[in-house]
Amino acid sequence: AQKITQTQPGMFVQEKEAVTLDCTYDTSDPSYGLFWYKQPSSGEMIFLIYQGSYDQQNATEGRYSLNFQKARKSANLVISASQLGDSAMYFCAMREAYTGNQFYFGTGTSLTVIP
Amino acid sequence: DSGVTQTPKHLITATGQRVTLRCSPRSGDLSVYWYQQSLDQGLQFLIQYYNGEERAKGNILERFSAQQFPDLHSELNLSSLELGDSALYFCASSPPGGRNNEQFFGPGTRLTVL
Q1: 3-class state of residue A78 by DSSP
Q2: Cβ–Cβ of A49/B100 closer than 8 Å?
Q3: B61 touching A, CB under 8 A?
């Protein structure tokens, strides 16, 4: 089974609107972390946000927030007030202690912000 | 600029050869991570070092090895190269007790095996 599933290969959003990028994960380890990364067309990788499995509150970093639903094993990224510069690939990843702190990545979602 | 440097930026070599990719983390960061991004395999975690010690191991082939030196820079050695090793190799670093597990990525080394 896939550890990380991103079911949206491509998404479009109007500038200034909010958008949710989906991510579900599969683990039986009680201790894990969830990450989101952004990769613009220029190719660099940018860390966006982190959520720990024991964190009580959803993580937020500026316009990024992580909608963490533990029982549903989902960790969706919400980008508020989209900007043209948000157009990029977005990757969800999980790190679990059970497998020696390995990272597992999803296949990514390509987000296009329309002016 | 994340403060993480990777050299070289591009590398073109032939099958069967050996190459070394170098990463210098941000000043003060003790952890170094290596990732591979290819069209076939997507993004994969290879290995993590913390202050010179291996901390976590991912899908790193036996033909690949890495180490972190006392000055905290890291090298990823790829040997007996195959066409499928062509990929973008990222290094990232993170500080000790880093805020929210933040990682800082280098610009990557693009390896082409012909």
Answers
A1: strand
A2: yes
A3: no
Question: A10: exposed, middle or buried (C-beta count within 10 Å: 0-12, 13-18, 19+)?
Answer: exposed
Tokens representing A71 are 């029982």
* Count of Cβ atoms closer than 10 Å to residue B15 Cβ: 12
DSSP B108: -
Cα–Cα distance between B78 and B38 in angstroms, integer?
Answer: 15
- Other CB atoms closer than 10 Å to residue B93's CB: what's the count? 26
SS3 for A99?
helix
A10-42 per-position pLDDT tens digit: 999 999 999 999 999 999 999 999 999 999 999
The half-sphere exposure of A1 on its side-chain side, counting CA atoms within 13 A, is 6
Q: Return the biggest CA–CA distance within chain B.
A: 41
d(CA A108, CA B47): 21
Q: Which of A102, A111, A103 is nearest to A79 (CA)?
A: A111
Q: What digits encode the pLDDT tens for the residues A45-100?
A: 999 999 999 999 999 999 999 999 999 999 999 999 999 999 999 999 999 887 77
Nearest to B92 by CA among B73, B76, B74, B105: B105
Q: CB contacts < 8 Å between A and B, how many?
A: 52
- Using the beta-carbon criterion (under 8 Å), do A101 and B90 form an inter-chain contact? no
Q: Which amino acid does the sequence have at A78?
A: V
